[in-house]
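cron nightly-structures :: item 1 of 1
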Amino acid sequence: MRVIRAGIDTYQQPVVYMHRDCEICRSEGFVAMTRVQMQLGHRTLIATLNVVVGDMVAVDEVALSEAAWNALAPEPGVLASFRHPEPAASVGALRAKVFGERLDESQYLALMQDAVASRLSDLELAAFVAASAGERMDQGEATALTRAMLAVGQRLDWGEGLVLDKHCVGGLPGNRTTPIVVAIIAALGYRIPKTSSRAITSPAGTADTMEVMAPVALDLPAMRRVVEREGGCIVWGGNVRLSPADDIMIRIQRPLDFDSDGQLVASVLSKKIAAGSTHVLIDMPVGPTAKVRSEVAGAHLATRLGGTASAFGLELDVYRSDGRQPVGVGIGPALEALDVLKVLRNDADAPADLRERSVALAGALLEMVPGNAAGTGASRANEVLDSGRALAKFLAICEAQGGFREPPHAEFTADVTAGVSGRIAAIDNRRLARIAKLAGAPGSPAAGLATALRIGHVVQRGQPLFAVHAQSRGELAYALEYAATAAPFAVEEVA
């Protein structure tokens, strides 16, 4: 069949489109959602079939989604052949996990190999994610999954010396400390090659926020050049493919809107180990509407992270922080980037909580370095910020990654006001995040919301609680409609 480009973004999932009356569909018995193996010269790809009933595709054509097109890079007019793929070798392991059995390292390796080779459908991968949730993946399995993810990806070697890194487990809107921490650490002469994810369940990931200020889709040689030149970087991990299996799992988790402790451990540590890190600090916000809900859950996750890190000889520390309320003013890629720049520039209106968290995390990471005295890290981090050295280093990293740019601003904004006067008793992080996502974040970089209110603040009826930012009137309306009933701020009337 003649190959054409469908021009349809299926978000990393290879999809092919055939007319229902084409000879291949009839002879091979292909129906919608069938897994098909496509042969293009020496290149093969396993994809999901969508059947076209209109005239978008001719009966002698096959149209490729963007993910499939980019994977094969076909020449104009090329012909492709199709057949049913061999059953995935890991199907037995997948079924075993679904029925509650414990898997060993060889089974996890088979699952990750099949996932990376597209031999497992998104439905099968979703079943694996669900079967691994909660307490259904133990410590040993988390370590085995980490090892399997490492085996199917690439690993960086930075040679002798320390390689520092930090990671936040997420769940706290606006907690965009990474660019500030990287700038501080690199300005002090340490290596900190930071690979970050795009948003999974949040309105912005570190890569989304960084991308509004500088390119992040660097390949491995480019990433290495930046680190060798500036000591640090902030790049999207999906493009350097240090843990491609994890990128696939993230794709599955995003619409499901959850991940499990075991998979979170494997996700975080597989990328840190693959990036060549020797010392890693984990920021773990704990709060009733954060990803980690309680101190008990935090202790459990910290134990899992520490156990797996130890198995790989990785030095790891966990910094538990207040996860009851958002950090900074902005929630959404560009709004969070504005907060980051204000802190780095020492602006008078820079969010104090974002600066304090960044300094605390940078200080804790510095104190993990052998020979650095305990209790001195925060003061060193503050000095680097105050002197402007952190800003200079951040801008230098941006230039090395392809050039700095100022964050964009949304075209449409609207305030959501308090219905009663009183004191803010609680803030629902998840509802704030949902409002920002309904406004268009992270897909529309300038979208999201902005608020400086915190628990304990007193508000008057009619006072703005937060401002919604959107790139279209429709997204603004969606966010405002939800905000009208969601009530992310719990206001107690003051007697």
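cron nightly-structures :: done
The chain has 19 helices and 18 strands.
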